[in-house]
TrEMBL record:
InterPro entries per UniProt: NAD(P)-bd_dom_sf, SDR_fam, TAT_signal, TAT_signal_bac_arc
Signal peptide residues on this chain, from the entry's feature table: 1-30
GO molecular function per UniProt: oxidoreductase activity, acting on CH-OH group of donors
Domain of life: Bacteria
Family the UniProt entry places it in: Belongs to the short-chain dehydrogenases/reductases (SDR) family.
Keyword match Oxidoreductase: yes
Pfam families: adh_short_C2
Keywords: Oxidoreductase, Signal
Region called Disordered, residue ranges: 41-84
Record-linked PANTHER family: NADPH-DEPENDENT ALDEHYDE REDUCTASE 1, CHLOROPLASTIC, NADPH-DEPENDENT ALDEHYDE REDUCTASE-LIKE PROTEIN, CHLOROPLASTIC-RELATED
Listed name of the protein: Uncharacterized oxidoreductase YghA
Entry-linked Gene3D superfamilies: NAD(P)-binding Rossmann-like Domain
Amino acid sequence: MKKENNISRRSALKGLGASVATLVVSPSFAGWKEGKQANFAAPLENPLDKYPKPPYPKQTQPHPGLASKMDPVPDHGEQSYKGSGRLTGRKALVTGGDSGIGRAAAIAFAREGADVAINYLPAEEEDARQVVELLRGEGRKIVAIPGDITDSNFCNQLVKDTVSQLGGLDILVNNAGYQKSNLSILDISDESFDATMKTNVYAPFWITKAALPHLPPGSVIIATSSVQAYDPSENLFDYAQTKAANVAYVKSLAKQLGPKGIRVNGVSPGPVWTPLQVCGGQEPDKLVNFGGDTPMARAGQPVELASIYVQLADSQASFSTGQIYGAAGGGGHP
Ligand code: NAD
Ligand code: MG
């Protein structure tokens, strides 16, 4: 427990600006050092000004894309996410944990005290290494397991490796996704349609089936859906269907697993600045104004969703199951 406080304090200090450095000697901070509750206010921030706004530089990358090569580089909470022990001792698997929303969830889980396994495609090794390097030395076990989840055998192996390397599993985040923009249904090849379905619908089915025998009561499953489930864009005909399937996955599985003490919830992001969008997920011309039509007038950053994943994983949310939590900058559903 003492170690937890030291870790949190060290990372908190790293992120404190010079203007608030005097807090270090304030009585409230001294109290925290002694193991009491933190008692200083987070600064009031205007969400409109927190992150880069459109127009964004025009850019494309080959699939699956790297966060490190995006301009601007997304904020996954590397410097800013501070934990407070909400998930101490928990064991999490996050698919697509190398970049984007999955990386933000993985960083937050680790900073909240969980051991974390991330899965990603071998082509994303560079992004995955950044996550491992970042979290190394922060006192948690971070395991990187590359592999393609469109292969059911790999999905089984992924769960086996996670359980053996973390010594169990109680937070499963089915977050990996494939999105390819096509202006016409006539442009969607069978192969592309199949890749979308396999990544977004089959893989969560295979991974969940493999994981279930290992999940003790109190475990949680979290799916990343999308506003596309509720208000599909004309260019995301196949992707939107899979995100609606993710909502049904949550609603059905929550009913099935509630009596076993396992909660199942989903997150429904709006436009978030991630590699998925720059490697075929959006038309490059439209990406320049990505998120510009939301009330926040910008794209979200992955870190802005991290606390939602933490909240859903936290045992304090024990009566929340079968829910979809939105984060869409003011537009979208639910
Ligand atoms: P991202 O590119 O950072 O993450 C997607 C990840 O999926 C990749 O990092 C990759 O590791 C993984 N992946 C894809 N195909 C895979 C495969 N065959 N095998 C193994 N891993 C594979 O982008 P993101 O936006 O953070 O995406 C995460 C989730 O968020 C996806 O489910 C996506 O549908 C959803 N989402 C994103 C947005 C957005 O605007 N970015 C909006 C709504 C929903
Ligand atoms: Mg990635």
